[in-house]
Prior knowledge:
Order of helices and strands: HHEEHEEEHHHEHEEHEEHEE
Structural class: alpha+beta
Catalytic activity: ATP + protein L-histidine = ADP + protein N-phospho-L-histidine
Distance between the termini: 58 Å
InterPro entries: HAMP_dom, HATPase_C_sf, HATPase_dom, His_kinase_dom, HisK_dim/P_dom, HisK_dim/P_sf, HssS/ArlS-like, Sig_transdc_His_kin-like_C
CATH superfamily of the largest domain: PAS domain
Main location: membrane
CATH topology of the largest domain: Beta-Lactamase
Radius of gyration: 51 Å
CATH architecture of the largest domain: 2-Layer Sandwich
EC number: 2.7.13.3
Coiled coil: 217-244
Shape: rod-shaped
CATH class of the largest domain: Alpha Beta
Strand content: 15-25%
Amino acid sequence: MLNKLSWKVASIFFIFIVIVEVLLFSVLYTNLVSDQVDEVLDGLLARGNSHRDVLEKSFDDITLNHVALMETEAATDVIITNNEGEILSKSTAATDEITHLIKDNDYQNTRHIGRVIEEKWRSAPYIATLSPIVVEGEMMGHVYMFSPSDSVQQVVHELTRQFIIIGLFTVLLTIITLFILTRFLTLPLLHLKQTTERMSMGETNISLEMTKRKDELGELAVAIQTLARDLEHLKNERNDFLANIAHELRTPLTYIKGYADIASRSSLTSKDREHYLKIIKEESEQLTMLVKNLFALAKMDQNQFSILPEQVKLCDSLDKVINRLHPVFEEKEVRLELECPEEVEGWVDPERFQQVILNLLDNALKHSTAGGTIQVSSNKKEGRAVVKVRDEGSGIPSEELPFIFDRLYRVDKSRSRASGGSGLGLAIVKEIIRLHSGQISVESSLGNGTTFIIDLPGGENNG
């Protein structure tokens, strides 16, 4: 059974093709009918001119009777008149219609050539021609040729019958052809539709044979199969994301509940209770930061994360961040250096830019050891502002580098609390840089530290 698309495609093509066929058949039919009628009229006139030629050579009773006798065995009739319109010889009885035609056309033709005097084959009983008889320059009479209109109508009817048969055969052939073509075109589309319905129901492990085609349907099949793979990847990422969120939420909540139970014991000393309350506070802050980061990512996904860029001297912003973090770095005995030419400017949101640098420095500090150095530098490159944050930590394995900006991804698969962080910081950094029309990349190898490279719009009129 044809599907809806097949019906629509077939109907549109059928209507269009039938209109074209009707126009072509109409023109062809009209021309053929006209040619057939003209052929009959020309033949009748030629026969009359032939009789006229004989009579002009011998205009006597014997010849007149001979001409009339010849037409008695033919489908046509002849009537020969003198110059006064009197009938000299005839092959048929002069009916009222014939008499009327003779009276209307007698004496009117003074030319030496014949002509058609009646061509209304649809309504008149006869078609007729007139051929003047001229002997030595003197008009001697006229040869009237008559043919029943039925002969012309029979030719036209036969032609019409043939056209109807051919037309019906053409329509039938058109329907069959359209049926085959629409099925050939729409069956792959129907298969693709069924595949997308399976995808909408959650099935993403699909394989389409149409990907081997070298046409638009093949390209569409490739696109759908690629979409299915992307959906499978997104589904896996969503499941991992939910599992990671559950883990990240469960860990601080477990600590808070456990230490709250311990702190509530009456036998606990004040010093121990203060210690456990401090841990509860730290875990609460960790939980608060996690929720805050999740809300920030949600706003980014919904395009509700506001970025208000302006022309900023990056050295000033970097200096503010470093001054805020110096006590923390000194406590861990990690050196923090800034290398920034004063002329470096960027088209950034100052608050969001500082948030990016804070995240990167916090991440670098967590992976640095005492005595290490973290360097922040900036420079201009081809009208862009480039900021680098480099540490001397343990580095990141090369196989992990493509995933470090993924949400809740951490190189430390054990998720030990010593490594800190929730795995959202770098994801937020990447989104903020993207919203600035910038790019962030990372270079790292085990034992040689890590360098984050930020490329931002720089100079004037970049908004």
